[in-house]
From TrEMBL:
Family annotation (SUPFAM superfamilies): P-loop containing nucleoside triphosphate hydrolases
Species lineage: Eukaryota, Viridiplantae, Streptophyta, Embryophyta, Tracheophyta
Organism: Cynara cardunculus var. scolymus
Keyword Transmembrane: yes
Protein name: Sulfotransferase domain-containing protein
Cited Gene3D superfamilies: P-loop containing nucleotide triphosphate hydrolases
Keywords: Membrane, Transmembrane, Transmembrane helix
Transmembrane annotation, as ranges: 23-45
Amino acid sequence: MADDLCFFIKDMLIIRAPVKNYLVLRICLVAFVMVCGVFMCSIGLKQISNFTKAGYIDTKMVARPCEMPNIEKWERSYVHFPKPATFNRAECACNPVRYFVISSTQRSGSGWFETLLNSHTNVSSNGEIFSVKPRRSNMSTIVDTLDKIYDLDWLTSASKNECTAAVGLKWMLNQGFLQNHEAITEYFKTKGVSVIFLFRRNLLRRRISILANAYDQSAKPLNGKHKSHAKILASYRPSINTTLLIPELKQADNMVKQALDYFNSTRHIILYYEDIIKNRSVLNDVQDFLRIPRMKLKSRQVKIHKGPLHEQVENWSDIQKVLNGTPYESFLHEDYRVS
């Protein structure tokens, strides 16, 4: 046995290990290395997974909320930082946005007034949204529509860029505004919506405008073209039904009073069309109310009826007889003139 294990070559002793034992050691070593490698890989993957999760959580926690501007405490509920789903506000994400609604009655100058507001770089007033009946069918659809507008996800031609500073709409009193006044008031208070009331002082002028507009809508085309041009429409002189005149004026007056009573607890401003016509500085008050930078507001709309009131109706003498001695007698007198 000793002869098999060792021999001498030139005075050197060589010892050979058994072949089988050597192979077993190599296999065990390779297996050990493989097990260690799998173990270390699993540990590494687990650490990477934990790091990724931790990093994600940290990112959400590090995302700092937008800083509130230096304003009085009561006003903070009217400052918003909407996060639209349809686009990214990017660098304007922390630019504060004010919510508003223009509440008015038909033929009170609200369309003209809204074009003035929309001429401001940072204002988006989205028009008469609730003229579409399904949008005001119930309070749920009303809230869904308002949320979309105030989240900046209601896209119209009036929509500005991501740096919008005030967003709103025009809402007529007879479009579910008064019928749902309790729920709407609560929504305005919760969401921090400011109300801009716009009315006409002279309800007789408004009545004439309603009749002129009805004529414009029903006027037949001339040579295939609609004849609702300002000059042609201005020449139209309606005849007012004097039997219904006082009840109609009273109804319009009561609607305005009702609106002001229902929404008295909201943050609001009351404007009159005649005041804006006579003094454009009133528009500065509106911009201050919305907390937006003052700009010179412009509109491309033209006023149709510019002349004296008695020249705008067919039966002026009958109207005088009916209104003299009533609470509406003052409507007969000239309240403003536009050159």
